[in-house]
Design a protein that fits this description.
Order of helices and strands: HHH
Structural class: mainly alpha
Number of helices: 3
Number of strands: 0
Strand content: under 5%
Length: about 70
């Protein structure tokens, strides 16, 4: 996931995405521990995506980055 894709999302969406990525990371770690993980690249990619999401949320919390409003269409 690219950083511009993350910045386009609203805060509520980022919170949900953060929780989902944490769950995915846990599942991947369990798979790695039991030697069931086929794509080892997915572990690093998920960890980096989670870090990007948390960085954007933190920046918005501290006022460094403008908050996105959820637009209802």
């Amino acid at each position: 996931m690219k950083i511009f894709e993350i910045r386009e999302r609203a805060d509520a969406e980022l919170e949900t995405l953060s929780k989902q990525l944490q769950e995915d990371l846990y599942k991947l770690r369990v798979q790695k521990a039991t030697n069931q993980l086929e794509n080892t690249n997915s572990l690093g990619r998920t960890r980096k995506d989670l870090a990007r999401v948390l960085t954007v949320l933190s920046a918005r919390k501290h006022g460094i980055e403008a908050k996105k409003e959820s637009a209802v269409k």
